[in-house]
Design a protein that fits this description.
Number of domains: 1
Protein name: Outer membrane protein beta-barrel domain-containing protein
Largest sheet: 8 strands, antiparallel, barrel
Radius of gyration: 18 Å
CATH topology: Porin
CATH class: Mainly Beta
Distance between the termini: 45 Å
Shape: elongated
Number of helices: 1
């Protein structure tokens, strides 16, 4: 419960703090983006990644708060037990390249990475397990197709380098842009 409370506070305060830093700058384009995403994880056993990203954009520079939940697919009797899962919260900064229909993005940051991973085999498909919490370095690159100023489709690959389990996750996302200030 304390983790959910902390995440809720960060989600509320992060965009407000970023917006407040730039209230007097009238020559830039400011907007928020809300980005739900889904993708693949754990190519060898099959897995699913779902998440949400909140972005504050100022021209081509942006700040992002990202959450991903990664879990193996449960195929019933044939799945190893317990099912591994991971969670990531990323605090990132990045840059957009290009305007209009196509935008390329690069971003990087840091954030907590936690979950459950299997350790020693106990018996057939039954494993001992441990919960972990660590800090990871996050890198992401992607392409956004923007057919409308308020809506886009994103394709990206995200990498989390950490001491417990390095993961890479290709995702597809919908980008909802909420414009707050226009160029003069």
């Amino acid at each position: 419960m304390p983790k959910i409370r902390l995440l809720s506070i960060l989600v509320i305060l992060f965009p407000i703090a970023l917006y407040a830093q730039n209230l007097n700058d009238d020559k830039t384009v400011h907007h928020f983006s809300v980005i739900p995403k889904v993708g693949f994880y754990n190519w060898s056993d099959g897995g699913l990644a779902v998440g949400m990203e909140f972005k504050y954009n100022k021209n081509t520079l942006f700040y992002a708060l990202d959450y991903l939940h990664l879990t193996e697919l449960d195929t019933g009797f044939f799945s190893p037990s317990p099912i591994e899962y991971n969670n990531q919260i990323g605090f990132m900064i990045g840059k957009h390249f290009g305007e209009g229909l196509l935008q390329f993005l690069l971003q990087g940051g840091v954030g907590p990475f936690w979950g459950l991973k299997r350790t020693d085999l106990i018996e057939n498909r039954m494993y001992d397990h441990k919960k972990f919490l660590t800090v990871g370095l996050i890198a992401k690159t992607g392409l956004t197709i923007n057919p409308f100023h308020f809506l886009g489709l994103g394709l990206d690959v995200q990498l989390n380098l950490n001491p417990e389990k390095t993961v890479y996750v290709p995702t597809c996302s919908l980008v909802f842009n909420i414009r707050s200030k226009r160029k003069h």
